[in-house]
Amino acid sequence: MYIQELGLKNYRNYEALQLAFEDKVNVIIGENAQGKTNLMESIFVLAMAKSHRTSNDRELIRWDCDYGKIEGKLQKKNTSISLELIMSKKGKKAKLNHLEQQKLSQYIGQMNVVMFAPEDLNLVKGSPQVRRRFIDMELGQIAPIYLYELSQYQKILTQRNHLLKTMQGEKKNDTMLDIFTIQLIEHGVKILQKRFEFLKLLQEWAGPIHSGISRGLEELKIVYKPSADVSESMDLSKMKEVYYKNFQSIKQREFFRGTTLIGPHRDDLQFFVNDKNVQVFGSQGQQRTTALSLKLAEIELIKSEVKEYPILLLDDVLSELDDYRQSHLLNTIQGKVQTFVTTTSVEGIEHDTLKQAKTIRVENGKIKI
Fold it and tell me: What are 288-302's pLDDT values in tens digits?
């Protein structure tokens, strides 16, 4: 799949923009704070209906404007699709082939993207929240039901946390809390099951890729760390039973803390290279190889699930990789994945992929091709 055309209206520092792209590699060049990352972000938002940089949609709308709009024409194997996302103070509207979608889960997944930005190099050593977000973003693209379960879970989690806060220091009435706990578990185990399935597939792709980058010297293992005493081998009914027992055993701690202490929102991932925890014992090179392996694995995993390669967004990440990892990345995508690269300069990057690319120059929210 590839995006043929992009239109922006009142998006970030772009007043209006119409742009056509090559189906292979497009290099977006510009100095810092001119709008190249905004342009890249708009492609991500068009696909995912949310930004990777902010959770506040208002920030995506141009200063002093009432709304912002992103439009795109997507070419897939057998069809052409028009996508449209309108953001305003009232919320978001998503249109597919000019028809408004009632649920975002019906819209997300039509256009698949993999984003690789400098902050993704922190996937290994960053906070657990970064790793959970990584799973949620990629899994949501290939399994719309996952987005539904996650959305329901987060709504109940908010209500449960609010109730726990109001119960701090008060006489405890467990009935309402128990109702929320059962509802939370109901959605939580389905999220967990999907995550286990996803990470098994990711391991199948990431292991050989990591071995290739490390010239066969390193073996990568991905381990899911649940906050409850559940495991991949359990069926859903067993997971529910264990979750409920765990919640009962930490009830007093939750009353004291005023928040939900276990569940998918508290889980984490660990990465092991040659049986050593990369986060704790890995060199910076090993951490970066792990992050690169995961991103390249995402591309192949999405291809295996949706039968088409996703669009790859490389936001200022090439300059963060050494020549060897840079070449490995560009060799892997060459000729098969539509790729967008943002950079301040292509000098020093000697690779045929970039020499054959379409160059788009950005200056103060304006395009100079």
Answer: 999 999 999 999 999
Per-residue pLDDT of 296-336, as tens digits, reads 999 999 999 999 999 999 998 888 888 888 888 888 888 88
Q: What pairing do the DSSP bridges indicate for beta strands 220-225 and 339-343?
A: unpaired
Indicate the pLDDT class of residue 169, thresholds 50, 70 and 90. low
In this prediction the pTM is 0.90
Which domains does the chain carry? 1-112+308-369 (3.40.50.300), 125-303 (1.20.1050.90)
